[in-house]
Amino acid sequence: IDECAKSKTQCPGPCINLPGTFRCDCNIPGFISTQSMDHCRDVDECAVDNGGCDGVCINTFGSFECRCETKGKKLDEDRRSCVDVDECTRYKSKVCANGHCLNTDGSFTCTCKNGFRQSVSLNSCEDIDECADDNGGCSQVCYNTPGSFRCSCEEGFAIAEDKASCKDINECLNKRGGCLDVCVNSVGSFRCLCTHVGMVLSEDGLTCKGCTSRQFYNRSTSSCNNCPSHAHARDGLALSVQDCRCDKGFHGNPRLGVQCQDTNECHTGHMNCSHECVNTEGSAHCACPDGFMVDKDGITCQDINECRMLTHDCSQICDNTEGSFSCRCFSGYRIQEDNITCTDFDECANSLAPCSHECVNTDGGYSCICPTGFHLSSNHIDCNDTDECQLNVSPCQHTCTNTLGSYICQCDGPGFKLSRDLSSCLDINECMEGDNPCPNICVNTVGSYSCDCTTPGYHLVANTSVCEDIDECHQTHNPCSHTCVNVPGGFTCMCPAGFELTPQTNSTVCNMCPYGMYRSEQDATCQRCPPGTNTTQRGSTSIEQCLCRDGYREDPGRSGLCIDVDECKLGLLKCQQDCVNTDGTARCDCLPGFVLHADKISCSDVNECAVQHGGCAHKCVNTIGSFRCECNKNYRLVDDGLSCEDVDGCDKEIYGCEYRCAITKGGPSCVCQPGYELLPDGRKCSDIDECKLRKGGCTDTCINTPGSYRCECNIPGYTLSKDGKQCVDLNECEQEDACEDVCANSIGSFKCYCRKQGFALAQDKRHCEDIDECARPRTCQHRCTNLPGSYRCDCDPGHYKHGHNCIPCDKGSYRGFKDSDQRCMFCPPGMTTSGKATESVRGCYCPSGFYGKAELNETCEDVDECARNNGGCDHKCNNTAGSFHCSCSLGYALQSDNKTCIPTICPLLEIPKYAKFTTPECEAMSHGFHVTPGTTCSVKCKGSFILRGSERRSCLSNFTWTGSQPNCTGAYSCDRLPLPQNGYLEPPLCMLLSVPFRTRCHIRCNSGYKLQGRIASKCRAFNKWSGKLTYRCIKRKYLKDM
Known about the structure:
Elements (H helix, E strand, L loop, with lengths): L2 H4 L8 E4 L2 E4 L6 E3 L6 E3 L13 E5 L2 E5 L5 E3 L6 E3 L2 H5 L7 E6 L2 E6 L3 E3 L6 E3 L13 E5 L2 E5 L4 E3 L6 E3 L13 E5 L2 E5 L5 E3 L6 E3 L4 E4 L4 E4 L4 E3 L10 E3 L3 E2 L9 E2 L2 H4 L7 E5 L2 E5 L4 E3 L6 E3 L2 H4 L7 E5 L2 E5 L4 E3 L6 E3 L13 E5 L2 E5 L4 E3 L6 E3 L13 E5 L2 E5 L5 E3 L6 E3 L13 E5 L2 E5 L5 E3 L6 E3 L13 E5 L2 E5 L4 E3 L8 E3 L4 E2 L8 E2 L4 E2 L12 E2 L3 E3 L7 E3 L13 E5 L2 E5 L4 E3 L6 E3 L13 E5 L2 E5 L4 E3 L6 E3 L5 H4 L4 E5 L2 E5 L4 E3 L6 E3 L13 E5 L2 E5 L5 E3 L6 E3 L12 E5 L2 E5 L5 E3 ...
Antiparallel strand pairs: 1-2, 3-4, 5-6, 7-8, 9-10, 11-12, 13-14, 15-16, 17-18, 19-20, 21-22, 23-24, 25-26, 27-28, 29-30, 31-32, 33-34, 35-36, 37-38, 39-40, 41-42, 43-44, 45-46, 47-48, 49-50, 51-52, 53-54, 55-56, 57-58, 59-60, 61-62, 63-64, 65-66, 67-68, 69-70, 71-72, 73-74, 75-76, 77-78, 79-80, ...
Protein name: Fibrillin 1
GO molecular function, one term: calcium ion binding
Pfam families: cEGF, EGF_CA, Ephrin_rec_like, FXa_inhibition, Sushi
């Protein structure tokens, strides 16, 4: 092996390949040779004279370098000497800012400009703050600037000629400083003066202004002073307090020190108010009592019309009065005790409404209403029957018949029945009620029914109720691309051998099996050929068409399997030297000392002497497949086969070699046996660890041994090659029991296959185990049973199998899980089920109104509903086949619940005392005879008695009477007069609810109130009071004395 070419050695220079080893040529600067010759030793140049460095010498592998560690020094071009660094040139603007840089040996210094000084770091110049020292000599303000400063002055001063002191500015010299009159200068400022009499300085400090109308000018202070309270300056200029006068409405003399006081105009007689005078500060005005206001003349009072000005509290009508107002109400309302609020008067409760049936009080009036089935006539009093059947929208869904106060609905045709609301008609479900008229599927329609077949794949035979299978395969268009097979309720597509259905749901197209796959008649889908085999064409029909690929042959021990052909054993590859078989092919290799030709078959000799003399110390002689070393005269070859020793130059006792002494070009020296190297003492030998250098050439693991080493291959799927170093693929398939069925070798591994359909590799990846197809989702629609190599689908109870689908049993049929027959069984005659998918005969039951158990083979018998609790009927229960109905006695009607009976006549009216009926049919009620809805009865009081309550009452369709119970009262009494709010009636007899005939009652008001309206009334015949009963008590109002 050429270690120099194939591996990365530790030689820093040239590598010399030798038979079985190599050596390094250390004849390069910075290195010396070692006894092992497989590496070179570094020379430490710094050990001698510091390597010639001025500064620090640092040794490196094969060389060295000098460094200058003194600050301000750098390495010169000779890479050894240290010279000064010119920091001023190297760093330029980075050092000595605001100054000049001066280079020194190993450093530099800064000289600063005027106004600057050296910083603490000494490598830059910083500004001097002159203002920090005695304010820079400035008399007022000092401003520091980079490298200098400047003086400034405050407002009102200017800088002097010395640029340090400040001098005053005379603002009066420039347009009088802005003053309107006189300007007076001061140090650093100025002020304005007003010299004219009566003028003072304004707030702006520049202009002049006069005093206000309530001020006078004070000569002594040249300022404006305020006049006394309620006083003002006289017209023109006021130069003293004597020029101040009292305001209008005040009196006094400010000149004499008398303050201005309010004048009471009401006492002076100037106001002349008609009612009341009110004095105010500086003035006065006239006032009026409640209900009046001051007129335009400001003196007299006039009445306030609260009604027109909307300041009254009346809820309805307002009437103005002198100094006040009164309230009254609209017709149908009554005034309340507060004489303000109006409330509705209930005409219905007081029997003032002439309604024939029912009276409803409204706000301010009343309305007559009629019961259901009647409507108000044109007089808005009487009620007439309503013909509901003639309305725009008929109340009945089908036929309507009018009755007095109501109507009756009837349904058209035998396929309908009246619903509980007695208006709409319900369709009769012939399929659910009574016997099923269809032997198979019954479909209810509106007013009728039809027989049908809902099971997919079936159709109804014309003019019958029989369902027969549809032969989809013999229709105009074949639904399958190849063979179509009709099955009950559907069809199945089948493919010829070599084809399979497209792998999708309900596919009908057959596709040809691709290369490497086949399908026989027994296979459901195309199967993949065993490993190592392939097909010669598409559409293969059996595994026999899976032939071995090139490099494989059929295994005689296992039919249908292909094993690798050992081309080397069969002599199929004419190698000149060594033949190496591989999976599916083979290759030629050469023995050591030979190399493979371009034809990949022939081998030629390698001339080892052509490279570094083969490692021989003296002479190298090439041989076929190898070489040998020879020594010069007086030398002999030592055991390593490379070195030569002087025949007479070694003396064991002198050299004391551990192994032996050999003569070399340099003289006698100790040598070690192969696999060992000479220690630094030059006599003893130490084992060479070949594994340290590129793992000794091992592909995987290298293990060192005394004087040698060995390679091991611990990579799974690999084994050690013949050369003892390389890891090559291990053909596991050649081992016994590698796979239970088919074994396919691969580089570094292998894989087992299972050819049997329905089987897959177990967890050990070697043996075949049955595939539980039932564990996969949606394998079967309902139940799945796993079988060896296959599975079976079954349907849940209540379903039958149709191809791969489970169809629910139709209504009236059933199927149990234990029923081996995939068909659904019909229920016993007369019985049905609650729906589809019935699971057993127990799900068959008799229709409503019948009883019987299918599991006991009983027939359906009618249930007599009337035998128990009379069927829930109020009156009579009538049993029918499968049902029953209730009926009512004469004079009663059946209600919407079809069980309850209510009377069809109104109850007897009670005849009031002192009264009689004016209609003959109503008079008969006194003898126990009833009347029917629509009858109207009138009541009349006898003699002079007065009727209270409803005079006319009608019998309604709901068998109730309109109006209220009437009664007759005497003619010689009156109802109590309405009590006034804040008042009462006299004498006490008038406070009774019923006041005796001819009693005179007086209306009285409580203290603080006065009567407005009628003061008394007398009880007359027939509950009548004399006069107009309008009166109220109003609060008295008192006027202040004028």
